[in-house]
Amino acid sequence: MLSNETIQIIKSTVPVLEQKGKDITTRFYSLMFQDHPELLNVFNHSNQKNERQQTALAKAVYAAAANIDQLDKIIPVVKQVAHKHRSIGVKPEQYPIVGEYLLKAIKDVLGEAATPEIMNAWAETYGVLAQVFIDTEKEMYESAEKQAGGWEGYKNFFIDRKVQESDGVLSFYLKPVDRESLPSFLPGQYISVRVKQFEHLHIRQYSLSDAPNEEYFRITVKQETNKEGESGTVSSTLHHFAEGEVLEVSAPAGEFVYETTENPVVFISGGVGVTPLVSMAKKAVEENENVTFIQAVKDRSHQLLANELKQLNLRYMACYEQATDEEKASGACQLKGYITKDWLQEKLTSTNSHIYLCGPVAFMKVLYGYLVDMGVTKEYIHYEVFGPSVGLA
Fold first, then answer.
1. What is the rounded CA–CA span in Å between residue 98 and residue 106?
2. 221 closest CA partner among 197, 239, 195
3. Which of 38, 114, 138, 257 could bond to 110 as cystine, CB 3.0-4.6 Å?
4. Sign of CA dihedral 285, 218, 79, 63
């Protein structure tokens, strides 16, 4: 436990963390990778390049400082990050390294303002927070390994089948090389896939896009490109892999999962965000008669996994950003253009629904705002952001 003196010192640094948090985390990654390039095999290079990781870490450090006297408030975030750490293989011995360079970065950026009292307080605080992560992840590692069909670290899977879902999107059916039965997973969870590209290992998380079964994992992968038109490192590599080639895969992980309820259930997806929601929907219809699925896509050619959804016992609605008059008239889509609050309010008659959102961050922020304005309880709105965590509120 932290002393009251330490807590007060940490809280006194909140204003400067709000102002210079990203400077600190940028300096932190620069210093750490310079001295420990082996950690580049763990961290996402793309998120480093576009600075999403630096921003997310800055927000996390700020939140930890602001809530240091109420650590229970950050436990949900700890669990979410711990799932990611377990899936990529973060180990206890790496935490002291992170702590060393985070403190160096704080001192570098704050300069003379980083007094011995402040540095000591942050060293003590980091130690407490690191131990929370280590203890949480230890339980997750043990659970993943000991469950039926589970394993430690990464396991070799081969691509049994590739299916073209749309232009630039493929589904991969992955089976274990050892032919052992697979562990079950909670609908909505993901796996980490690790591939070698140039001199580094690269790890990405992909949602499991089908219902749990003992034979295969299915992931549905969009070939990503950045603003400069460069292809995504891992997604591009996967798209070029042939059936029969081998990947390294972690056991399923993740906190964004379907929760059994008697209330109405609504799934709203944007683009490739449909992938975890398909798995959830297949579970939801087994136990709930009031399930709605709203799928927002650019156009009909991007309507991923729609045929599977239409075969389920649920109310399905498609929203095309770009639709022809014929498509609208024929019922191929129920909305032409973007989802509006009025349209959503018309289609969702109950504010007591449990609602699951997944898609681009901008899309989810707009939908989250609509739902809150409509009177939906915030605790009933569940969402996942692909990549470093950000809030929608």
1. 12
2. 239
3. 114
4. negative
pLDDT digit string, tens, across residues 72-115: 777 888 888 899 999 999 999 999 999 999 999 999 999 999 99
Quick one: 116 and 237 in the same domain?
no
- Could you tell me if 252 and 149 are in contact, meaning their C-beta atoms sit under 8 angstroms apart? no
Co-location of 24 and 138 in the same domain: yes
| CATH (domain of 158) | 2.40.30.10
Residue tagged active-site, from 29, 62, 95, 383: 95
pTM for the model stands at: 0.92
Check residues 384 and 277 and name the one with the higher pLDDT.
277
Of 137, 154, 165, 368, the active-site residue reads 137
Per-residue pLDDT tens for 117-145? Answer: 999 999 999 999 999 999 999 999 999 99
CA separation for the pair 83, 137 (Å, rounded): 7
CA atoms within 13 A on the CB side of 258: 29
Lowest mean pLDDT segment, chosen from 118-122, 234-238, 385-389: 385-389
Q: Domain range holding 34?
A: 4-146
Report whether pLDDT(226) > 70: no
Decide: 190 and 276 in contact? Cβ < 8 Å.
yes
Number of domains in the chain: 3
Contacts of 160 (CB under 8 A, 6+ apart): 173, 174, 175, 216, 243
Give residue 71's pLDDT band: very low, low, confident or very high (50, 70, 90). confident
Instruction: Count other Cβ atoms within 10 Å, centred on residue 106.
Output: 25
Residue 137 annotated among the catalytic residues of the structure? yes
CATH of residue 373: 3.40.50.80
Domain stops at, among 224, 250, 276? 250
- What is the rounded end-to-end Cα distance, in angstroms, of the chain? 31
Catalytic site residue 95?
A: yes
